[in-house]
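Supplementary Methods. Inverse-folding protocol.

Structures were first reduced to a discrete structure-token string of length 61. This string, shown here, constituted the complete conditioning input.
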């Protein structure tokens, strides 16, 4: 009852912790990549919007 956690349990716990760390790293990496891709995809749209806005601003003045 005293020494309930064996060496195998501690080893498994360490593996689980490192595994969750890798999963978290992978998830954050994919999130950053998807955000970067989204920005790249939206960049031409924003550029087009800014160009139209700028030409309208020039035509107004």
């Amino acid at each position: 009852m005293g020494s309930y956690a064996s060496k195998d349990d501690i080893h498994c716990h360490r593996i689980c912790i490192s595994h969750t760390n890798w999963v978290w790293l992978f998830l954050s990496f994919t999130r950053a990549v998807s955000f970067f891709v989204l920005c790249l995809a939206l960049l031409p749209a924003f550029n087009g919007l800014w160009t139209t806005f700028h030409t309208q601003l020039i035509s107004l003045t």
